[in-house]
Amino acid sequence: RGAAGSGADLAGRHVVVSAGGTREPLDPVRFLGNRSSGKQGYALARTAAARGARVTLVSANSALPDPAGVDVVRVGSTLELREAVTKAAAEADAVVMAAAVADFRPAVYATGKIKKKDDREPEPLALVRNPDILAELSASRPRSGQVVVGFAAETDDVLPHGRAKLAAKGCDLLVVNEVGESKTFGSEENEAVVLGADGSETPVPYGPKETLAETVWDLIAERLPAAPR
Ligand code: CTP
Ligand code: CA
């Protein structure tokens, strides 16, 4: 598979993939969430395992079944995702942040169910910022030569926004795709451009999420330092 043409070009490598979408609890029965299905992250995990990698999949609220041969860590909120990804990244050759991470979480978590009070209008919902996990990973690089990859869904000015985001995050690759109401979310297919910190631009035509996943691993494999023998 891939440029090297090898069936197991990721053998001996440990890779971490985050998938799905984080949920920020308001109270025991409610959360703020997003529409990510986890399909792209799961496709990344499956394809990496097929190429010989040891794969840790940090899965946030995906309904998909655990892929065979992959270590799955299930998480709910952004802070849980951050803890699991940071721990796994300590010994990883590559980290791919395919999860849709909530930018904000409720400032307070109510331990009991929030009640509507009489006929008063509701209070505005106070939010606080979540940590930027991708930026933290890009800055920390616990293993030298570790490749860090992000995903960005944009609705307009896709490439300029993607370039700016790649620079702001400090990651090596950013997979940029255009989203809309019916595009990408829950879909089996995807279309994207993979931007490299080195200035490279790799378009991936509309097709199965597996195809995009293979291209991402090709680009990662090219950037990994030579495997220790
Ligand atoms: N990401 C992250 N931590 C966050 C937010 C996003 O690790 N708190 C990661 C996502 O997993 C993704 C990448 O950053 O790989 C880009 O996410 P995106 O939401 O497009 O970026 P933001 O910086 O949050 O920009 P925006 O204001 O457009 O939402
Ligand atoms: Ca965001």
Automatic annotation (TrEMBL):
Which EC number(s) does the record attach to this protein?
4.1.1.36, 6.3.2.5
Needed cofactors, names only, are: FMN; Mg(2+)
What is the UniProt remark on how the cofactor binds and its stoichiometry?
Binds 1 FMN per subunit.
Domain DNA/pantothenate metabolism flavoprotein C-terminal: residue ranges: 10-222
Q: Which domain of life is it from?
A: Bacteria
Q: Which reaction does it catalyse?
A: N-[(R)-4-phosphopantothenoyl]-L-cysteine + H(+) = (R)-4'-phosphopantetheine + CO2; (R)-4'-phosphopantothenate + L-cysteine + CTP = N-[(R)-4-phosphopantothenoyl]-L-cysteine + CMP + diphosphate + H(+)
Keyword entries, A-Z: Decarboxylase, Flavoprotein, FMN, Ligase, Lyase, Magnesium, Metal-binding, Multifunctional enzyme
Q: Does the keyword Lyase apply?
A: yes
Q: Which GO terms describe its molecular function?
A: phosphopantothenate--cysteine ligase activity; phosphopantothenoylcysteine decarboxylase activity
Query: Region entry Phosphopantothenate--cysteine ligase: which residue ranges?
Result: 15-229
Which pathway does it serve?
A: Cofactor biosynthesis; coenzyme A biosynthesis; CoA from (R)-pantothenate: step 2/5; Cofactor biosynthesis; coenzyme A biosynthesis; CoA from (R)-pantothenate: step 3/5
Family per UniProt? In the C-terminal section; belongs to the PPC synthetase family. In the N-terminal section; belongs to the HFCD (homo-oligomeric flavin containing Cys decarboxylase) superfamily.
Q: What is this protein called?
A: Coenzyme A biosynthesis bifunctional protein CoaBC
What organism is this sequence from? Streptomyces spirodelae
Q: Which gene encodes it?
A: coaBC
Span covered, complete protein:
190 to 418 of 419
